[in-house]
Amino acid sequence: MALANTTLHQWRKAQYKDNIPSCDLQQSGDGMELWAKPVDSVIKVNVDAAIFEGEGPYGFGMVDRYCTGQLLQACCQSFPGHLDVPAVEAMGVKEALSWIQDKQWHHVEVETDGKLTVQVFANRVAHFVAR
């Protein structure tokens, strides 16, 4: 529920004409990251992991939005057991890529806050393109 509330809060902020650019992720005072609209005709898929250390399960959530900010769909999945955050972030991005492929979307931007996950996928894409 917290992910849904945060996403809604970010989406509402993105609707304001004075929305700050995506490279400046922090707005002073609230500590919240802001969602930035993608360019025209692009779908943005946001992925985030959740670890519940005290309870044991882990999971991830995804939200798909069109460049207008319109919510296309969202989902979350949880699993029993224990995994570290980078592994769960990678699972979420992998699921998002499968989702994108199933929907046959071609102009898509995937966004996650998992630095290690972004680096791994960026290196794999660069390696794939270089071949």
How would you summarize what this structure contains?
The chain is of the alpha+beta class.
Keywords:
alpha+beta; Nucleotidyltransferase, domain 5; 24% strand; 131 residues; disordered C terminus
Task: Note down, in words, how this protein is organized.
This is RNase H type-1 domain-containing protein. One of its GO terms (molecular function) is RNA-DNA hybrid ribonuclease activity. Pfam families: RVT_3. With 131 residues, this protein is an alpha+beta fold. It has a domain of 91 residues: 2-Layer Sandwich (Nucleotidyltransferase, domain 5). 37% of the residues lie in helices and 24% in strands. The chain is built from three helices and four strands. The chain has a four-stranded mixed β-sheet with strand order 3-2-1-4, with helices on one face. β2 and β3 form a beta hairpin. It is globular, with a radius of gyration of 15 Å. The C terminus is likely disordered.
CATH class of the domain at 40-130: Alpha Beta
Structural class: alpha+beta
Radius of gyration (Å): 15 Å
Helix segment count? 3
Kindly report how far apart the N and C termini lie.
43 Å
Query: Numbering strands along the chain, what is their spatial order in the largest sheet?
Result: 3-2-1-4
β-sheet strand percentage: 15-25%
**Whole-number average pLDDT?**
75
Biggest sheet record: 4 strands, mixed
Q: Ranges with pLDDT <50 over ≥5 residues? A: 17-29, 127-131
Q: SSE order, as H and E?
A: HEEEHEH
Please count the beta strands (DSSP E, at least 2 residues each).
Answer: 4
Q: What is the fold-level CATH name, i.e. the topology of the domain at 40-130? A: Nucleotidyltransferase, domain 5
- Helical fraction equals 25-40%
**Which overall shape is indicated by the principal axes computed on the Cα atoms?**
globular
The H-level CATH homologous superfamily of the domain at 40-130, spelled out, is Ribonuclease H-like superfamily/Ribonuclease H
The CATH architecture of the domain at 40-130 can be named as: 2-Layer Sandwich
The oligomeric state is: single chain
Protein name: RNase H type-1 domain-containing protein
Pfam family, one: RVT_3
InterPro entries: RNase_H-like_dom_plant, RNase_H-like_EbsB-rel, RNaseH-like_sf, RNaseH_domain, RNaseH_sf
Domain RNase H type-1: 46-124
